[in-house]
Amino acid sequence: MKMIARFVGTALITAGAVPLMQTIAFAQQTDRYDFGPHMMGWGGGWFGMIFGPIFMILVLAVVIAVAVLIVRWIGGPWQSSHGTHQPMRTPLDILKERYARGEIDKEEYEERRRVIGD
């Protein structure tokens, strides 16, 4: 049991020490003030900087879209923007309109009104 604990402890120490040693070795290889053509050796130039605003706009668009969807979901169904609500027309109302426009004569109007049951 002690042997397993020692092995695990040694493995953990080695796992933490290797990246630290690699960082120290890299720092010793590079000159402290050697920036080269681009700051800190980053070769992206101005082209790489376009992604920041693009991602910012995309994130903002997603946030606005989610907010609109939440408000629409909470608000329920859309209402008419004019505020006018026409009640359902009954068959008798349609018959009266057709008679008033002259589409049907008086006899046909009376017969259909009796059929409707008014």
Can you give a write-up of this model?
This protein has 118 residues and is mainly α. Among the domains are: 1-31; 89-118, no CATH class. It contains 4 helices and no strands. Helix 3 packs antiparallel against helix 4 (106-116). It starts with a helix and ends with a helix. The model has no long low-confidence stretch (mean pLDDT 75).
Tell me briefly what this model is.
The protein is mostly helical.
List descriptors.
118 residues, mainly alpha
Can you lay out the helices and strands and say which pair or pack?
Elements: H1 2-29, H2 51-75, H3 91-101, H4 106-116
SSE topology string: HHHH
Rounded mean pLDDT score: 75
> What profile does the largest beta sheet have?
none
What proportion of the residues is helical, as a percent range?
Answer: 55-70%
General shape? elongated
Structural class: mainly alpha
Count of helical segments? 4
Task: Count the beta strands.
Answer: 0
Q: Return residue spans where pLDDT drops below 50 for at least 5 consecutive residues.
A: none
Distance between the termini: 98 Å
Beta-strand portion reads: under 5%
Instruction: Write down the Rg.
Output: 40 Å
